[in-house]
Each structure stands twice: as structure tokens, then as C-alpha cells.
Design a protein that fits this description.
The chain is built from 50 helices and seven strands. It is mainly α. The strands form three sheets. The protein has a three-stranded parallel β-sheet with strand order 4-3-5, with no helix packed on it. Strand 1 and strand 2 form a beta hairpin. It starts with 10 loop residues before the first helix and ends with a helix. About 40% of the residues are buried.
Length: about 950
């Protein structure tokens, strides 16, 4: 039933309706003040900072999603980039407050009933107020409203659309329908949740259009046109995006491809944001309770009788709402994770809880039924009781939820980012793990400092590789950057001896070590030093300890807060702990034991579980009174490890150690906890048999030994190596089956099995074994090179890209890797980079394929005279290569040496008569010579021989040849 105040009434009733809506504005104002008081003082890490960097263009890899929100970010950035985070945080608070007001209106008016409003004074004020307060201070809304985040703007669009269609229901104004259609079109581009609710909202709208006799062709056509106009935002945003460099990074060559990518990204966002598990729970705590309240509010059986069924339903509904409000496991963001699409369910839970609160209010209210007054709590007392209860409930929930939405961490983490830039000095390049990238970029932009980040976590993403390739000035470095950071650094260190002064490494000091550059921990990053003995370690240690002791307390405080920022603080503490430990190792190596000891102890203060620091400290403490205590602590920590760690794993996790002493100590401690079994005397007998050349007898005894003791790893390794050496297939398959059963990977065995399958002609199975072997032993350079050559033979660019990345990291000048790299660039029409790669391949090891490909690239660049020596050299190396003869024919044809070109193309056809390209080139030569009769003869021959298999490019070539 329509609300009475929305139809023409007396001025007093209109004033009362305005006053009631003013209560909603008051609640929205209270929420806005709460959001301002808890507003993030600076960019908040995570999604909030990421949308600022990407949409503003600080990070050039702009997203395809959220075009409306992105335009707002760009507009604010143009006004004052230094104030971008503050203004966008404030914008989120405004959107959140507006959403609170809309929830109040929907709770207050959407289920209005005239009779119920008369019998229970103020019931719908209770319903709207409780809904709005619940919504305002639930975790997801408060979280997104206190920092820059697109979810509140997106939710505002959705709630505005729902409000418009309800306002049409209340007033009957058709202009509201048209505004609703336009907003739905725009919202569908911005917020994927619109697609979820398009069908129910559409049915709801059509139903009320029918009731108000507005369901006609003109209105429907107008709404459809306006909806399509809103959807045209797709076209505008795609055109703008197509003009940006990021379109080139994403390899979208056309405007239509950008549109397709937009749809694909929105679909991907939709599928990823929908919960894979727990979707039923989310529905049961949000949509389903709300639907029940809607159905119940429309029934004519509502009475004030305290029936058991109704009381039970209200108790259940209230329990669900309380569990969601207090962010228990039933809360969507707790159950599924922070997802923009999962903010909408909180609206339904808020409305359902507002309805249940109104029902509890009606239970206490005195009612006059058929002239008989039913007793109850006086209206004023019931209002006070409900008001106090709601305020206590809201305040208690706000105190609990504040831990999750606390934004004070932003100041500490942004301070770290500022100090990181300061400690880097003039360095403009930083290799990161991606944890703090957005805050680093925002800090650099705020301070006007140039900073380029190389995020190892993103190097497998083609757009990211294309982006940092564009930052390189040298063509060779551009080419290698398209493959990966490892390949890039391998060449960069060779080309630029001063790279240590330009580059910093945030966390992985092994990057420096792999290029034989000693890593020096320097406050927030690892610097590379060519001469570590020139470092004043006493002063360097004092400076770093002063810095680290200054940042330790606030980071520890963030860890204790247990909110979303805690993981960033914890990661920084662990990173700093590794730096302190590694600096201690350097101090010890350069004869500064006191500094080393203090660094080891401080490393453990930062991260108590740093096993490397404990072992290093334990080694230095020999003879000290506390040695026994440290040894027992190390024994306890090692005993807690589920598996025995190798030294390399220990270094990667906790930092550098003194390898020899630590290994002996670890072996001693491990033996205390898990004593090793003594090797039986039969092992020596096996070795003697092998050395005596009695390999068959040795193999039989090893087979029996592994059968009797399947867990004997030493015997299995010996058995597999000997079986591979003797090429004993049954024994090899026995080892392979055991390896699979143990879920292990033995690189040598897998490589041997690959060779075995290749010898049988099972290329696919051979490649699978090789791939497994490379994953288990990624440093196997010969096998990597073999895989790359197989990729070249099969023209497998997908797998070839990954193999090239690994191989170039180990050997930047590898001939096969550069050949495959050139082929990749050629397929992407990057001819300059392809030329560089082919020349590098030829310089290391000339091959007819690289020479032929280089000659063809030079032909495409119209450098035919330069191409001629390369193609002649290719033919000398492989005289029976039809493709080389064909390339020679094309080059001679361009040089107008038609007789020689005819000879070359005839040779190509004689070597491979089933290829169409030499025939087309023959026709082109005749066409250039003006011999139309022979052109028609060759074209007819081509159509008869290849008519059913010709591609479009071949047909276009023939059309050009046939033109006079």
C-alpha cells in the first residue's frame, strides 16, 4: 500500500513526513561524523591504495573496470595530486553516508502499511532507524567508507536505482522511470552486481508500471533507449582506453578488442567475486531473511498475538543479524573475504533486522482492537526501551568492528614508504615483492621523485612485462624485459657496470648474490656493493639499528591490532629481521663481532622465529654462560619443523648463515631430535660391485633392497641412477612408479624417462617428462636448451616463452633462447627487437634458421642488400632448406635480379612442392616482369593445387597479382 504522505494531503502530514525523513538525515550525519573520525589519514594499503595508483595513472597499468569511479579519481588527481588520497577518502565517507540515508528511506517506506502505522505509532521510524544504524556500522560499510574504495560509490548507484523505482511506486512520476533506466545502464558498466539484480528489479518495475497504467510501448521504448545510452559508457571508456599506452601493453590492437577485454574483465571480476564456497550461507544470512520479511509484511494475518512461531522467527532473525553485525564467521566478508560484490548482502541483512526490531517494538506497544484496549508498555516507555536497546547494540557492535576498520595503520605504513624513498637516495629502480608497491608509488608521486618498481610477483603477466620493457632505452634490454626480470637483469648487469648505484632490492638479497654482487642491508632495502671491505660497518650498523629501533614499536603495535593492515606490518618486520641478520653475517665476516652479536639479537626481537639469527647467535655464543639455553631453544625450534630444511631453504626463509658451522650444528640438533639410521654394510657392497663393473648384479641387489625397504631413499637414488645408466626400462618404470607414489620428483629420472619416450617417438609424453624435470631441477641448462629447440621446431610460442625466460636468466647469450625470443617478437610484429634477438643468436652460434629469419626481417624492413649475405650463409649451412631458398628468391626479386630469383624459387618448389608460398612468389616475379600469360598460368596452378587450403592472406596476394 502506498504511503499516505506521498499523495496530496494536508500541510501538517507533509510536515510530519519531512520530519521523519529528517531523522534519516540525522542518522546519515552521525554515520558521516563517525567515518570522518575514523577516516584514513593517508593512503590505506591494499585495494584502497591500488585504485588510487591505477586510476590516477601513477601506475600506468590502468584497469578496465570501474570507469565512473576512475573518472572521479582522475578528476580529483588533476585538481591536486598531493591531496588525492585525502579527497578520495572523504568522497568514500560521503558515499557511505548517502547509502545510510537511502537504507533508512527504504527501511522506513518500502513496506509501509497504513493500518499498521496507525496502530503502532512510530513503528516504521524504528524499522528505518535500526536498518540504517545496522548498515552504517557493519564492518564492510564502515571499512569501505573510511578509506578510498570503489565499493561505496558502486553501492550508492545500486541503492539509488532501487530508491528511484520505489519513489516511482510512491509518486507515480514517469520521469523517475526514465532516470532509473539511465542509472541502471550506467551502473551495469560500473558495478557488476547490477546484472545480478536486473531481473528482479525489472520485474518489480514492470509490475508497478502495470498497476499505474504506464506499461505502454512509448514508455518501454524510452526506457530502453535511456538504458542503452547508459550502457554506451562502455563505448566511451573503451575509446579513451584505446588511446593510452596501456592498450599497447595489453596487446589490444583494435578498439573492438578493447571492448571485448572490458567484457571479459567484468565477467572475470564477477566470477572471482562470487563465493566459490559459502554462497548458501551468504544467502541464508542476507537475501533469504529479507525475502521472508517482505512476504510476512504483505500477509493479512499479522496480529499482536505472541504466537510461538512468530517469536521463534523473530529470535532466529535477530540472532542471524547480530552474528553478521558483530562480524562473526557468518558475516559475508569474514566468510568469503573482502569482495565488492559481497557488500550488497549487508543491505538485505540490515533491512531484515530493521523489520525484526520493528516487530519487537510492536510486541510491547498497547493496541486498541475493536474498542478493547490491549495492555502493553506505554508508548513513551517502549520508545525509550527500544531506543536504548538499539543504541547499546550499535555502540557494542561499533566497538567490536572498529578493530577491523581501524585506519591508524595508514600513517605508520606510509611513513615506512617515505623513509624507504629517503634511504634509496638517487636510486630510481627497486625490485619488490609487491607488498608495499602502491604506497611506494604514491609516496614518490607525492614527493616528486622518480621511482620504477620491478615486481617479481607480476613478471609472468605479459602487460606488466611490456610496461617495464617500455622503460628501457636499449633495444636489447627492451627485448629481454619482454621475457622476464631475470633475463633482463642478466644482460643489464653486463651492459651497465654502475647498475649497483641505480638499483635496490627490497627483500630478495639473493638477486644480488646470483650476479656475484655482495648485498648490503641498508635500512629498507638491499644495496649492491662492489667493495664491501670499504664499508664502515660500525657506523653502518649504528645507523641501521637506530632506524630499525625507531620503526619497530609502531609495526609491532600494528601486528597486535589484528586487522587487515597487520599482515603488512608483519611482512615488514620479517623483512627487516632478515636484513638485520644478514648485516650481522657481514659484520662477523669483516671482524666486527660485537656489532654482529647485537644484530643477531635484534633480528630475533623483530621476528622471534628467525632460525638463521638463532643459529648464528648460537655459533657466536660458544663458551658463553647462555650457550646451553640458546642450544635448547634451537633444538626446540628445529624440532617443531615438520621436515628437515636444507641450507638453501633456511637462507631463503630466515636469512644468511655461516654455512659450515650452521650445517654441523643443525645436523647435531636434528640427530638429537630425529636420529638417523646407520647405513647398513650392504651399501658398501653395492658400491664395490659397481666399481668392479658388476652392474647387473648390483642392479638386482638394489632392486631387492628397495623391495624389502621401500622407504630407503639412498637405495632408490642409487637404483634409479644405475637403471638410467644401463637403460633398463623395467627398472626405470619401477623407479618412476615409486616416485609417483611418494609424490616426489627426481630430475635425473624424469629426464631419462623423457629420453626413453622420445626414442620411441612419443614426443608429447617426452615433453611432459622434460617439463617435470625442469620444474624439479630448474638449473638444468642443457635440458632447458633442448626444450627451447623443441619449441623452435614445433613453433610452440606458449611454452617457448617460459623456457626462454628461464634459459636467458641462466645464459643471456644462449643461441637457442635468442632464436626463440626473435620468433616471439616476430609473431608480435616487433621487428626491431626480433632483429636484435636473431643477431645475438647468430653471434653466439650461427644456424640456418636464425640466418633465414634475420634475412626475412631485413626484407620486411626493406634492407634487401644487407639481407642477401645472411640468406646465402643460411643456404650454405642447410642446402636442402626450401624456406631459405624461398627467402632468397624474394630478396633477389626485390633487388630486380629476376633470373636468379626464378632459379631460387624453382629450387624451393623442387624441395617442397606442397607449400603455397613459393608458387605465389613465382607468380609475383612474373607479375613484376609483366608476363601476364605466365602469371595466369601460375595462378591457375595455385588454385587447382591449393584451392581448398588457401588462407585469406593467400587469396589477397593472388588478387593483387591478378590486377593489371
Amino acid at each position: 500500500m502506498d504511503e499516505p504522505e506521498t499523495t496530496p494531503r494536508k500541510a501538517g502530514k507533509r510536515h510530519r513526513a519531512t520530519r521523519h525523513h529528517g531523522l534519516g538525515l540525522l542518522i546519515a550525519a552521525v554515520a558521516f561524523v563517525a567515518y570522518l573520525l575514523t577516516l584514513s589519514p593517508q593512503p590505506y594499503p591494499g585495494e584502497s591504495a591500488h585504485v588510487l595508483t591505477t586510476h590516477s595513472g601513477i601506475d600506468p597499468l590502468r584497469p578496465l573496470a570501474n570507469p565512473l569511479y576512475g573518472s572521479i579519481v582522475r578528476t580529483v588527481a588533476r585538481l591536486d595530486r598531493g591531496q588525492l588520497a585525502h579527497r578520495m577518502n572523504l568522497f568514500s565517507a560521503l558515499c557511505g553516508a548517502a547509502c545510510v540515508w537511502l537504507v533508512f528511506i527504504l527501511g522506513y517506506r518500502s513496506q509501509w502499511d497504513k493500518e499498521r502505522s496507525r496502530r503502532f505509532k512510530g513503528i516504521y521510524l524504528v524499522q528505518g532507524s535500526v536498518s540504517a544504524l545496522f548498515f552504517a556500522f557493519c564492518t564492510s560499510v564502515w571499512f569501505a567508507s573510511s578509506r578510498a574504495h570503489p565499493v561505496m560509490f558502486d553501492l550508492l548507484l545500486l541503492l539509488s536505482a532501487v530508491y528511484l523505482v520505489n519513489l516511482y511506486r510512491w509518486t507515480g512520476k514517469r520521469c523517475l522511470l526514465f532516470a532509473f533506466a539511465l542509472l541502471c545502464g550506467m551502473g551495469s558498466v560500473e558495478y557488476t552486481t547490477f546484472y545480478l539484480w536486473m531481473v528482479p528489479l525489472g520485474c518489480y518495475t514492470l509490475f508497478h508500471m502495470y498497476r499505474k497504467e504506464h506499461l505502454d510501448t512509448l514508455n518501454l521504448a524510452t526506457m530502453m533507449v535511456l538504458g542503452l545510452l547508459g550502457l554506451s559508457l562502455y563505448l566511451l571508456y573503451a575509446w579513451w582506453y584505446y588511446q593510452l599506452p596501456v592498450a599497447e601493453y595489453r596487446e589490444v590492437p583494435s578498439y573492438l578488442r578493447v571492448l571485448r577485454h572490458m567484457g571479459h574483465e567484468q565477467l572475470t571480476s564477477f566470477s572471482h567475486s562470487l563465493p566459490k564456497i559459502g554462497w548458501l550461507t551468504v544467502g541464508m544470512v542476507s537475501v533469504f531473511p529479507w525475502l521472508l520479511t517482505v512476504l510476512f509484511s504483505r500477509t493479512k494475518t499479522q496480529s499482536t498475538d505472541k504466537t510461538f512461531a512468530l517469536i521463534f522467527f523473530l529470535l532466529l532473525l535477530s540472532a542471524i543479524a547480530i552474528a553478521v553485525y558483530f562480524n562473526s564467521i557468518l558475516s559475508p566478508w569474514t566468510l568469503i573475504g573482502e569482495s565488492p560484490l559481497l557488500a550488497a548482502p549487508y543491505v538485505f541483512t540490515a533491512l531484515a533486522f530493521g523489520w525484526s526490531a520493528a516487530q519487537w517494538y510492536s510486541r510491547m506497544h498497547p493496541v486498541d482492537i475493536f474498542g478493547v484496549k490491549k495492555p502493553g508498555i506505554p508508548p513513551i516507555l517502549s520508545a525509550i526501551t527500544v531506543g536504548v536497546g538499539v543504541l547499546v547494540f550499535v555502540a557494542a557492535g561499533a566497538l567490536v568492528n572498529y578493530r577491523e576498520v581501524d585506519t591508524r595503520a595508514a600513517r605508520t605504513l606510509n611513513s615506512w614508504a617515505d623513509q624507504n624513498l629517503e634511504s634509496m637516495g638517487d636510486r630510481e629502480w627497486l625490485i619488490t615483492n609487491g607488498v608495499m608497491d602502491d604506497l611506494y608509488l604514491l609516496a614518490a608521486d607525492r614527493q616528486g621523485q622518480t621511482l620504477h618498481l620491478l615486481n617479481i610477483a607480476h613478471e609472468r603477466q605479459a602487460p606488466y612485462r611490456a610496461y617495464y620493457s617500455s622503460l628501457m632505452e636499449d633495444d636489447r634490454l627492451k627485448s629481454l624485459a619482454r621475457i622476464g626480470i631475470g633475463a633482463l637483469l642478466s644482460e643489464w648487469f653486463i651492459q651497465d657496470p654502475e647498475l649497483t648505484e641505480k638499483l635496490g632490492v627490497e627483500d630478495r638479497d639473493t638477486i644480488w648474490s646470483s650476479y656475484r654482487v655482495p648485498p648490503l642491508p641498508t635500512k629498507t632495502f638491499f644495496a649492491g656493493v662492489a667493495q664491501p671491505d670499504a664499508v664502515d660497518f660500525k657506523q653502518h650498523t649504528a645507523d641501521n639499528l637506530a632506524f630499525w629501533r625507531g620503526i619497530e614499536p609502531p609495526l609491532n603495535q600494528l601486528v597486535k591490532m589484528k586487522n587487515p593492515a597487520s599482515r603488512y606490518a608483519e611482512a615488514l618486520l620479517i623483512q627487516t629481521s632478515r636484513k638485520a641478520n644478514n648485516l650481522g653475517v657481514l659484520c662477523e665476516e669483516f671482524k666486527h663481532p660485537e656489532e654482529a652479536r647485537s644484530l643477531y639479537q635484534f633480528s630475533r626481537e623483530l621476528h622471534e622465529g628467525n632460525l638463521s639469527a638463532l643459529l648464528n647467535n648460537l655459533i657466536m655464543a660458544r663458551g658463553d654462560p647462555d650457550f646451553a639455553t640458546l642450544e635448547m631453544e634451537a633444538h626446540t625450534m628445529l624440532g617443531q619443523e615438520k621436515v628437515r630444511m636444507s641450507l638453501s631453504a633456511l637462507v631463503n626463509l630466515y636469512g644468511a648463515i655461516h654455512a659450515k658451522d650452521a650445517y654441523l650444528l643443525m645436523r647435531k640438533l636434528w640427530n638429537i631430535e630425529r636420529p638417523r639410521q646407520a647405513k647398513p654394510a650392504s651399501y658398501q657392497r653395492m658400491q664395490d660391485l659397481y666399481l668392479e663393473g658388476k652392474k647387473e648384479e648390483c642392479l638386482k641387489q638394489l632392486e631387492a633392497m628397495t623391495r624389502d625397504n621401500p622407504d630407503d631413499r639412498y637405495a632408490w637414488n642409487f637404483f634409479a641412477a644405475l637403471a638410467a645408466e644401463m637403460n633398463d626400462e623395467p627398472a626405470l618404470y619401477t623407479c618412476l612408479n615409486h616416485m609417483r607414489a611418494k609424490r616426489e620428483q627426481w630430475p635425473l629420472l624424469l629426464e631419462v624417462m623423457g629420453n626413453l619416450e622420445a626414442s620411441r617417438g612419443n614426443q608429447e609424453r617426452a615433453r611432459n617428462h622434460y617439463e617435470e624435470s625442469i620444474k624439479a631441477g630448474p638449473m638444468n641448462l642443457p635440458l632447458l636448451e633442448r626444450m627451447v629447440r623443441l619449441d623452435i621446431r614445433d613453433k610452440d610460442v606458449v611454452n617457448g616463452r617460459e623456457h626462454v625466460r628461464r634459459l636467458l636468466t641462466l645464459d643471456p647469450g644462449n643461441a637457442a633462447a635468442n632464436l626463440m625470443l626473435g620468433m616471439i617478437h616476430f609473431m608480435q610484429r616487433e621487428y626491431d627487437m626480433a632483429e636484435i634477438a636473431f643477431r645475438n643468436s647468430i653471434e653466439r652460434e650461427p644456424s640456418h634458421t636464425a640466418l633465414n629469419n634475420l634475412a626475412w626481417i631485413l626484407h620486411l624492413k626493406e634492407q634487401h642488400r644487407e639481407a642477401l649475405p645472411f640468406i646465402k650463409q643460411a643456404i650454405e649451412m642447410e642446402h636442402a632448406s626450401y624456406s631459405s631458398w624461398d627467402t632468397l628468391a624474394v630478396i633477389l626479386y626485390e633487388l630486380e635480379k629476376y633470373t636468379a630469383a626464378h632459379t631460387a624459387v624453382d629450387k624451393a618448389i623442387s624441395l617442397e612442392s606442397d607449400e603455397i608460398n613459393p608458387y605465389i612468389h613465382r607468380a609475383q616475379i612474373y607479375h613484376r616482369q609483366g608476363d601476364r600469360e605466365k602469371v595466369r598460368s601460375v595462378v591457375e596452378q595455385i588454385r587447382l593445387k591449393f584451392g581448398g587450403s588457401m588462407q585469406d592472406k593467400h587469396r589477397r596476394a593472388l588478387q593483387l597479382i591478378e590486377e593489371p
